[in-house]
Write a sequence for this structure.
């Protein structure tokens, strides 16, 4: 295991990050071609939070949160801590004291492929967390992991400095190098969606807006009048 | 695979549906003999919604939401869209645009054995959804499924036109033909429960109200005074 | 199977219980050496409840809630009902009528390694429940289990009369005999945490407060300046 | 709950069943349009069994195997018992005594959405079982279910008398009415597959055999020479 | 956490253990009233092993196998090591070197609520293991747990010195004090089963052997002639 | 989504790969510092296979196996196909025809974060597969993915050309650049293990071989004579 902490990483610019935060997970996920999403078991501890920031990556070991302390020192204001674990483990790696410390260093939130505790306090503090579990089980500080190296978190590869977006729909990673391009695509998408939304709200059908009927027929969709016809059709 | 869309289905009458909605899932489930319940992994995206309507059934394929567009055209006001998938899949088949379209056609809500996204928007719109997952992962439109044919959704067989009831306790299917009879049984049950509730609230014991003591004794329940007796009893 | 109901059990004193309730699950869990926690699939049906009380233990069989009725008669005001099941089962063992009955006997809440229903009513009543599932599926009354004997609930051994603490972080068992000692340790811990919290809130690092740097170095943590160094370091 | 046992059901003819058995699950599943498959958690208790027969359907309740006794009397030689449960439950509903009884009545095997025990004896007897779990936990005989009515088993709707095929790949249901037609399609498919197999074994590519290249290009697949080109392509 | 290793524990006598081993898990589970079974996710790493012995209990922490080394010194020939973990964790706590060591000390096998590795070597050595996972992930030796204290393993409470039985059906705990009584009940059960088995093998029905018909009728089972009657019966 | 197929990738040399194959997953996993392991849900379809080769990476979409055809053309003899899916999906992406094709191109085996079918044929062919499920459910060919780009498979990041090792213990990735170094470390480890194995087989304790006693005492392990002392110690 590489037991390494990297001091300096590149980050995306603040404007791009702010733009991506405004668009949210579902729109940006579409805009970058449906990649970058963490597995859907990652859920927010309270509803209606939405944040974006630079990934401060942390690799921990099961039942051990030592590296989180190391990571806080290497953070920059606006970072989001992204914690992967060497194996599936749902212990409570993070609680109110660590949240206090994160806040003092302007870390915006936590994404952890593990458990979290003191969720009531975290909710009252308004410190947002996306985790795989809520779990009061505490952890030790015995095994060294890594900070600011590439990790896998909830099925997704994350480089330190990638942009993280998290809201009620889940957590998304946008690679730092493509973030500006993705933002542009997301804004276009939103404009495009707006006109679709209006037409749909007036009752127009997706079948017509997207001109799906010929393709559906070609691929074999058959319209029947009622279930009696269907019963015959089956045989 | 039958790639079929059925235009006309029979539905239960509005009064019966309204009556079942008022009773809610738990009561109606009991009233129809503890059948018809979807598996409990189906959860609402926001609390305190309760709806009932006619099942507009949709069969989709993993990662593909094409048939949902087809279904909207075949809906009637008051329907609930019930989506089963050909295999276990938690992709985000449904989001705010489709919800907008559903609402324009007076579809009351969605029950989907898959994932859903834009949950914050759906919550703000008040469009209720029961799903197995929240997942921003989008879907394609490549493979034809079916609309308004019998499906299995979350372990339950659903015919188009069956009555669907959904609330905080889960999702229940009532067969169209028996809906009126089930409603009557449910109303009786509620009346009966009311008197039980009052007696229980006054501190009477279920043991006495339901006259359970003789049966418990017959089946072998033994009362002991304390845990020391239990330690002896074991050996 | 021992089909036994024990009438009299020893309980911890009210003051100790009240003290533990105030401290909450995460703090007490640490104070007693990170033991006693139920598995994290046990979740509250509504947020922000926190209770502590004496365990009124119940052993039920899959799909059968008979013993819950037996248990209510043997309860004392302030008890928390703790229900284990002979096998993994998520049926809805408990609903609004039983909650009404529990309340009439001043049972403070329910912890059940199974399902619960009528959650909207329970929420409105303010009757707190921690369960593994929400499930409208009803149960029968055919098989005798046990009341007030030692059980395993969600991976944790529970003696009748042990102290149960439950809040947003989960459910914790404190053995009756050690409850007073654990309370003292918990209070100490809280005082100690308070000073840590203040220092962390001012921006001091855990690395310094806990003097972790020498130990991290000894165990092999290496600081690198940037990811280029890391790329070299790997080979 | 309908507590009913139906004495006489229609079955597919023996020749059709024998033909489907020979084709196996994967081929027939394709031949009938990729429908009818039970969820993949259904696994054989020993490898290399393959059977087909008429579904003798049984609906049981969690922790209760009473209806299996009722079903044996209503079986015909060559039937396969298909057991669904009213809720998710993995108790050991079936063991060596019941297998002995099934064999005396020429029931060919068991498909059960629950647990099974005495698997070593069953293996030695050569009585094949597909189940969701192996579990020594015994069951009671207290609650009446149903025999030979339509059920849902592992996510699949099954009518009594439908053809069941089971092998190492899982369990498949073929509707009785369409079985002959599906058999014909399956035989065709196998012939067709044979020629494909030979070409593939000689090293021909699926890309060429199925003429996929133009379609891949049309849908946007781009060939790059190496990963350096890919790194540029991304930005 | 009690960080304790207990040197001397009481064990059941060899004859009783040998008798229980011969009966196997399913029979003994019935004989002691359907209690004592570990959760069914515990599976053998190879088929057809059957062992019984005294429980040498071990409590480990996630990702840490230190206590297994401590336990080997405290073992007695014929013991079965039973390992519980402080939280859900599937790391590979045990491999071929530890198996070599166990064998040198005549430990008969391992039951572990965690992962195991080198399973091919263990199979070739004939060292039987029941575990929740096979996992090559290694563990550290940093955190002290306990040996020969009561633990919970896979949902079951285990006292050091209790009798452990393990075979293809799973793992069962028999309390040391009741082992002789349970053995006697098991032998009786087997004799009784033998005569049942013969009658069932001759084709007699369980319905008649156990005289179930009157009870089935009383509880509401209705026989119908065919599915047409059922269709009418439903409405 | 990058819809790209990369023609030429770098591979490790054959000798290194052969050396790693001989060492096996558990040993190499240790030798490279306990990294690189796929999640333990990846299981072989038959026991006692062990292979190593260069990763031919494939990214597929749920229910769609099109890219596997593309990958075969880009393979080199000795490659192992490693398939990741854009979302959790257990459909049967791969069967006997594709195995025939892989064999014709000397692909050594398959690692797939999805399902596989025709497992009996694959076993008879001796074509080894590690998968998350066995599932007869077929797939379509509609959506373009990627070949020979970096992917995440079962929680592990894989670059095309990395060394894959797979056996009964699971699947391991060794980065191409470090493979030679890891092989050397693995061989050393094995030599070292051999002497340990002999000492353990003679009955020496790990406690002594690894000199654990002082450290255990320092970390607080207390030896007690019996459980009576433990009962006192607890209070």
């Amino acid at each position: 295991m590489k037991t390494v902490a990297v001091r300096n990483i590149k980050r995306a610019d603040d404007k791009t990050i702010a733009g991506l935060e405004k668009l949210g997970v579902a729109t940006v996920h579409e805009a970058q071609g449906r990649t970058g999403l963490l597995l859907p078991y990652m859920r927010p501890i309270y509803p209606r939070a939405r944040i974006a920031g630079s990934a401060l990556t942390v690799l921990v070991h099961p039942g051990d949160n030592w590296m989180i302390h190391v990571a806080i020192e290497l953070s920059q204001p606006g970072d989001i801590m992204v914690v992967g674990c060497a194996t599936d483990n749902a212990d409570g790696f993070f609680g109110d004291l660590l949240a206090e410390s994160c806040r003092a260093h302007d870390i915006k939130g936590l994404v952890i492929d593990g458990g979290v505790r003191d969720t009531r306090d975290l909710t009252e503090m308004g410190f947002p967390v996306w985790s795989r579990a809520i779990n009061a089980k505490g952890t030790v500080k015995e095994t060294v992991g890594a900070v600011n190296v590439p990790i896998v978190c909830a099925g997704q590869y994350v480089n330190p400095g990638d942009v993280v977006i998290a809201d009620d729909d889940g957590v998304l990673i946008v690679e730092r190098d493509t973030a500006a391009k993705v933002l542009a695509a997301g804004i276009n998408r939103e404009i495009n969606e707006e006109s679709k939304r209006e037409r749909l709200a007036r009752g127009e059908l997706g079948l017509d807006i997207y001109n799906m009927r010929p393709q559906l027929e070609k691929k074999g969709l058959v319209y029947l009048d009622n279930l009696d016809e269907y019963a015959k059709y089956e045989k």
Summary: Chain B has a mean pLDDT of 96.
